[in-house]
């Protein structure tokens, strides 16, 4: 970690304080009193701009705080800065930003590594001590991937547990606010402040479902850890594979049991995600027309060609390439000719992915009325408490390598993270050290850890945090 | 950087929209805007009230038309289908989609008020806008359960099956009247399905459409809830003002099956749907004020064939249909269908093919105009709205609403005929006029007259009160060009007049005079003496003439007009008797001559 934090372009709008630790100002008492927390710039704050790193929202300041921001303030936290991201959360390396790319804190052969995306700014800010913790958003892995690439902890709670009011939509059926912190305990502390029903978010989990989840008995025995065989892909980098194996072994050594499980729909999950997320994006981003706020093209913005909508130029200039690519993709998969073959099929895959998960976990999905919907997931009789997989199939590429990747190659980074997003599961990425042999290969400024991802049944957020704390303590 | 690109949504967005109106009132782009508006056939102004035809006039026109038909049938004995022999060969089919603004306090998915509040400074533009209505980033919809009630009442009134579970979808298209870039609607799973509308000849359905039956049943495919759009007003040649007050106001869309086969029936369907919606309080603003809008699907096929085999709404064997959008009066519905039917027949008879397209109609036009063809159709990219949970409606709620549903127009009309002895025509007119205010006035008057006279049955005086409320008051409204809202006479005042009349304390002529007097007086209590006082001060009380006095008066008039006497006596023109009655009333002292007595006297003298 050689570069000066401020050269990494993690922060886009500074808050009142920029140094890590506590501030001198008296802040309200609370669990987060005096803590500096940075906020991904697609989460609304009323005292600084909220732009989602898009030209389309240049200069936009929200008239209200997102519920999660309001809760942070109520618990004594200081909002220190807004962090850089892939425009509207669309990207895996935080390179698609109107504010220029984020650089990861690590360097390989003189080239900075990808910080992961899309919450790369939040992850880098945490990793480099520019804040105590940060909020990100995770639609298909956008908190976990940056956590894995920066050696931080990234927690995506169950969908609906933390309010989305004030969170700029990308794919609203999967968008989840996530937490980036330097350790599991800090992430848990932030989580407990934000874990609340919010009437302003129509998808906020009802109090009764929360109570049902909370009534579950805490774990009193060793973890039953599922190892999904479908995640053992050819493209798994040796360094990642060896860290994974070593972690599994170490967990076993500590009295936890390993259980191979099968999640057969995993292979289709990535494709389904890249149909569904752009479809929702094309809808959610339709509001950026320059009429009421944000960027509008200069002069008359009417398209010179008749038959085209008025906003064609404003939108053409407001959005970056990746956003436009996904909007077009989504507009296509929703079109009357294509919807049956794409959007509808992808929804079916999504349901199968969820049923796969329901089939392997010991606990039942609290969203389902009964256990009759057991899916194709193959489990042992008892099922498992959590699933453990690597967060990403590779170590972070350099930003130069990212530039050479095609869109599809870059989407491949999300192969391990999207299934949990499709099912709305709680999932956390925890850094583990690269294996002993690796140490000799990897030079000091290069990344020193690999992200391991723990997934739990829907609503099992506490259990996932508990398992993450165990993983973090391993001396492997 | 241009200041226009740095715009901030301030905390009170609603107010801000007024202050920062330059953000909305934007720059010249005339041709595109005009074209785009035109292509969507948007009307920005509230349609003029004169477009609506009062039911009474409609019924008269209908009667005239029927008479003419009958006459022609008698003369030519060749056709039942009217003037155009082409209609013998071609059959029209119409399906209608009606958008009606629901009578609710708040918007569909935001808590902003749906209607002008008294505290609202007269309903300033952009004063009723929640953050979601303005599509601020990070805001979410919040379904307002209360909006469901008027929608459910409508569904129940049309006999629909209310779905236990329905869903919300997004219908996408870009327009500045649609801040989110999509409309929230119910495309895949509407909340109500399979209802029907029953009409009869008195609704204005031509005999041909009735096919010998008493009633005509038009199926309702579904009813869905959805958001209204913002209102755009053209200011000058190149400026548009967008008012988000209407954005998100709840509508229901009622889709009929294509089971309508004449323009008159189509208009009758729209009229009846409006009447039903009003009767159950689902919808308070009528078509004449823009509360209802209709889109019609029109196709023709050669009778006895299955057209080009087109189908929609589950009905097949039809000709290719075209859609005419945004019709805002009953007359427009009828005229647009006639014009489009005739156009299609002309095309087909010339060997042409009907294109599936969207067409427009402007009031007073004789032809529909092409707006866009199939290739220009917007692909709405319907998708489920993942932010809104499914709408689950319990049977208990449906049962409760069913049991408390106000009387439907058909039932009401029957009651008025049976219990108040009104004619069908008067019953229908009362129901239809002034948003039910006239009916209300009628009922209050009847009940208070009944109580005052201690009579047991409303039937005894219903007809009389009906005459006064509809015809006498109606006449005054026309003469003074006033609307019902400006009527100052109260039901109690009318009661006092009618009670005096019924008890023969005043003549009919005096009663009318009193009504006209009170009609014109200021509403302030000081300006309105009671009826009794008016009679006293005007010396209007009926002072019955003796038989002798009647005879003297009659003789005098007969002596003055020997020609008229001759007409009655020798030519047998009995109608002229009433002329004498009129003369007697006029020439006799005010408030003394009763027409019945006068008539009896004249007839006796003439006969003698």
TrEMBL record, chain A:
Enzyme Commission code: 6.3.5.7
Domain Amidase: from-to ranges: 27-465
PROSITE patterns for the chain: AMIDASES
Record key words, sorted: ATP-binding, Ligase, Mitochondrion, Nucleotide-binding, Protein biosynthesis
Main location: mitochondrion
Matches recorded under InterPro entries: Amidase, Amidase_CS, Amidase_dom, AS_sf, GatA
Sequence similarity: Belongs to the amidase family. GatA subfamily.
Protein name: Glutamyl-tRNA(Gln) amidotransferase subunit A, mitochondrial
Source species taxonomy: Eukaryota, Fungi, Dikarya, Ascomycota, Pezizomycotina
Gene (UniProt): HER2_2
From TrEMBL, chain B:
The keyword Iron appears for this protein: no
Molecular function GO labels: ATP binding; glutaminyl-tRNA synthase (glutamine-hydrolyzing) activity
InterPro entries found in the cross-reference section: Asn/Gln-tRNA_amidoTrfase_suB/E, Asn/Gln-tRNA_Trfase_suB/E_cat, Asn/Gln_amidotransferase, Asn/Gln_tRNA_amidoTrase-B-like, GatB, Gln-tRNA_amidoTrfase_suB_CS, Gln_synth/guanido_kin_cat_dom
Catalyzed chemical reaction(s): L-glutamyl-tRNA(Gln) + L-glutamine + ATP + H2O = L-glutaminyl-tRNA(Gln) + L-glutamate + ADP + phosphate + H(+)
Keyword presence, ATP-binding: yes
EC number: 6.3.5.-
PROSITE patterns in alphabetical order: GATB
Gene Ontology CC entries for this record: glutamyl-tRNA(Gln) amidotransferase complex; mitochondrion
Every Asn/Gln amidotransferase domain range: 440-606
Residue ranges of the region described as Disordered: 60-84
Biased composition (Basic and acidic residues): 60-74
Residues annotated as transmembrane: none
GO process terms (BP): glutaminyl-tRNAGln biosynthesis via transamidation; mitochondrial translation
UniProt KW keywords: ATP-binding, Ligase, Mitochondrion, Nucleotide-binding, Protein biosynthesis
Protein location: Mitochondrion
Main location: mitochondrion
Matches recorded under PANTHER family: GLUTAMYL-TRNA GLN AMIDOTRANSFERASE SUBUNIT B MITOCHONDRIAL AND PROKARYOTIC PET112-RELATED (PTHR11659), GLUTAMYL-TRNA(GLN) AMIDOTRANSFERASE SUBUNIT B, MITOCHONDRIAL (PTHR11659:SF0)
Functional summary from the UniProt entry: Allows the formation of correctly charged Gln-tRNA(Gln) through the transamidation of misacylated Glu-tRNA(Gln) in the mitochondria. The reaction takes place in the presence of glutamine and ATP through an activated gamma-phospho-Glu-tRNA(Gln).
Family: Belongs to the GatB/GatE family. GatB subfamily.
Subunit details: Subunit of the heterotrimeric GatCAB amidotransferase (AdT) complex, composed of A, B and C subunits.
Name of the protein in its database record: Glutamyl-tRNA(Gln) amidotransferase subunit B, mitochondrial
Protein's organism: Friedmanniomyces endolithicus
Biological classification of the source: Eukaryota, Fungi, Dikarya, Ascomycota, Pezizomycotina
């Amino acid at each position: 970690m050689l570069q000066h934090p401020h050269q990494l372009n993690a922060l886009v709008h500074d808050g009142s304080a920029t140094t890590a630790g506590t501030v001198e100002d008296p802040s309200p008492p609370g669990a987060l009193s005096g803590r500096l927390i940075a906020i991904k710039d697609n989460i609304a704050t009323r005292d600084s701009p909220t732009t989602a790193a898009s030209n389309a929202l240049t200069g936009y300041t929200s008239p209200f705080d997102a519920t999660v921001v309001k809760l942070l303030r109520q618990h004594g936290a200081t909002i220190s800065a807004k962090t850089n991201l892939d425009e509207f959360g669309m990207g895996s390396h935080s390179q698609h930003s109107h504010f220029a790319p984020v650089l990861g804190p690590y360097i390989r052969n003189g080239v900075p590594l990808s910080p992961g995306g899309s919450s790369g700014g939040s992850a880098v800010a945490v990793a480099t001590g520019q804040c105590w913790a940060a909020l990100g958003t995770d639609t298909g892995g956008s908190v976990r991937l940056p956590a894995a690439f920066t050696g931080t902890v990234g927690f995506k709670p169950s969908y609906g547990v933390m309010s989305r009011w004030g969170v700029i939509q990308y794919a609203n059926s999967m968008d989840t606010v996530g937490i980036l912190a330097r350790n599991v305990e800090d992430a848990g502390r932030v989580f407990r402040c934000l874990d609340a029903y919010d009437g302003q978010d129509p998808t906020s989990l009802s109090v009764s479902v929360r109570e049902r989840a909370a009534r579950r008995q805490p774990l009193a025995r060793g973890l039953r850890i599922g190892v999904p065989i479908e995640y053992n892909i050819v493209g798994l980098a040796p360094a990642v594979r060896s860290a994974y194996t070593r972690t599994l072994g170490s967990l076993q050594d500590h009295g936890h049991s390993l259980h191979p499980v099968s999640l057969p729909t995993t292979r289709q999950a990535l494709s389904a995600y890249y149909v569904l997320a752009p479809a929702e994006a094309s809808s959610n981003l339709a509001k950026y027309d320059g009429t009421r706020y944000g960027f509008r093209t200069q002069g008359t913005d009417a398209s010179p060609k008749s038959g085209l909508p008025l906003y064609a130029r404003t939108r053409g200039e407001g959005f970056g390439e990746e956003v436009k690519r996904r909007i077009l993709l989504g507009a296509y998969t929703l079109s009357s000719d294509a919807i049956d073959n794409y959007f509808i099929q992808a929804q079916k895959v999504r349901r199968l992915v969820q049923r796969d998960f329901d089939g392997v976990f010991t606990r039942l999905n609290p969203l389902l009325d009964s256990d009759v919907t057991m899916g194709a997931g193959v489990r042992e009789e008892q099922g498992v408490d959590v699933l453990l997989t690597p967060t990403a199939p590779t170590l972070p590429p350099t930003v130069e390598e990212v530039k050479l990747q095609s869109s599809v190659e870059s989407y491949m980074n999300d192969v391990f993270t999207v299934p949990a997003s499709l099912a709305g599961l709680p999932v956390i990425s925890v850094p583990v050290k690269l294996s002993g042999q690796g140490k000799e290969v990897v030079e000091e400024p290069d990344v020193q850890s690999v992200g391991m991802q723990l997934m739990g049944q829907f609503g099992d957020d506490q259990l996932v945090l508990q398992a993450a704390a165990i993983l973090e303590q391993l001396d492997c | 950087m241009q200041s226009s690109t740095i715009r901030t949504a301030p905390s009170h967005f609603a107010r801000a929209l007024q202050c920062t109106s330059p953000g909305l009132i934007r720059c010249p782009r005339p041709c595109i805007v005009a074209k785009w508006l035109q292509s969507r056939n948007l009307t920005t102004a509230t349609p003029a009230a004169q477009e609506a035809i009062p039911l009474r006039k409609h019924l008269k026109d209908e009667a005239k038309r029927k008479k003419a038909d009958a006459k022609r049938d008698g003369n030519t004995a060749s056709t039942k289908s009217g003037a155009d022999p082409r209609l013998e060969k071609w059959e029209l089919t119409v399906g209608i989609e009606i958008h009606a603004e629901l009578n609710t306090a708040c918007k569909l998915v935001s808590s902003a008020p749906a209607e002008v509040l008294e505290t609202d400074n007269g309903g300033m533009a952009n004063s009723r806008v929640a953050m979601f209505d303005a599509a601020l980033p990070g805001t979410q919809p919040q379904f307002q359960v209360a909006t469901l009630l008027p929608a459910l009442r409508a569904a129940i009134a049309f006999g629909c099956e209310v779905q236990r579970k329905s869903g919300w979808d997004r219908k996408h298209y870009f327009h500045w009247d649609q801040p989110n870039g999509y409309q929230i609607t119910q495309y895949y799973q509407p909340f109500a399905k399979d209802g029907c509308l029953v009409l009869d000849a008195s609704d204005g359905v031509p005999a041909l459409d009735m096919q010998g039956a008493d009633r005509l049943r038009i199926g309702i495919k579904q009813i869905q809830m959805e958001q209204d759009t913002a209102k755009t007003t053209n200011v000058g040649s190149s400026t548009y003002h967008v008012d988000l007050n209407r954005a998100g106001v709840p509508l229901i869309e009622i889709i009929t099956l294509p089971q309508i086969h004449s323009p008159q029936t189509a208009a009758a369907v729209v009229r009846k749907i409006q009447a039903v919606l009003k009767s159950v309080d689902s919808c308070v603003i009528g078509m004449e004020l823009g509360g209802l809008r209709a889109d019609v699907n029109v196709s023709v096929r050669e009778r006895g064939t299955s057209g080009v085999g087109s189908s929609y709404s589950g009905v097949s064997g039809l000709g290719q249909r075209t859609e005419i959008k945004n019709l805002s009066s009953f007359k427009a519905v009828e005229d647009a269908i006639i014009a489009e039917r005739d156009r299609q027949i002309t095309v087909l008879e010339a060997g042409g093919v009907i294109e599936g397209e969207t067409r427009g109609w402007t009031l007073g036009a004789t032809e529909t105009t092409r707006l866009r063809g199939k290739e220009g159709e917007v692909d709405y990219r319907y998708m489920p709205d993942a932010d809104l949970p499914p709408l689950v409606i319990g049977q208990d709620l449906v049962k409760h609403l069913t049991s408390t549903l106000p009387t439907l127009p058909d039932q009401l009309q029957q009651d008025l005929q049976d219990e108040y002895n009104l004619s069908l025509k008067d019953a229908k007119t009362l129901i239809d006029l002034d948003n039910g205010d006239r009916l209300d006035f009628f009922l209050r008057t009847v009940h208070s007259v009944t109580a005052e006279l201690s009579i047991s049955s409303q039937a005894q005086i219903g007809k009389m009160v009906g005459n006064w409320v509809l015809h006498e008051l109606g006449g005054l409204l026309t003469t003074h060009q006033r609307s019902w809202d400006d009527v100052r006479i109260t039901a109690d005042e009318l009661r006092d007049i009618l009670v005096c009349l019924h008890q023969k304390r005043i003549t009919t002529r005096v009663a009318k005079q009193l009504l006209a007097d009170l009609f014109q007086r200021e509403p302030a209590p000081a300006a309105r003496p009671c009826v009794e006082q008016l009679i006293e001060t005007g010396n209007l009380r009926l002072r019955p003439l003796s038989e002798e006095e009647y005879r003297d008066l009659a003789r005098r008039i007969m002596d003055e007009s020997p020609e008229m006497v001759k007409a009655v006596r020798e030519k047998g023109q009995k109608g002229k008797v009433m002329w004498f009655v009129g003369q007697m009333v006029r020439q006799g002292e005010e408030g003394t001559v009763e027409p019945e007595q006068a008539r009896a006297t004249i007839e006796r003298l003439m006969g003698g």
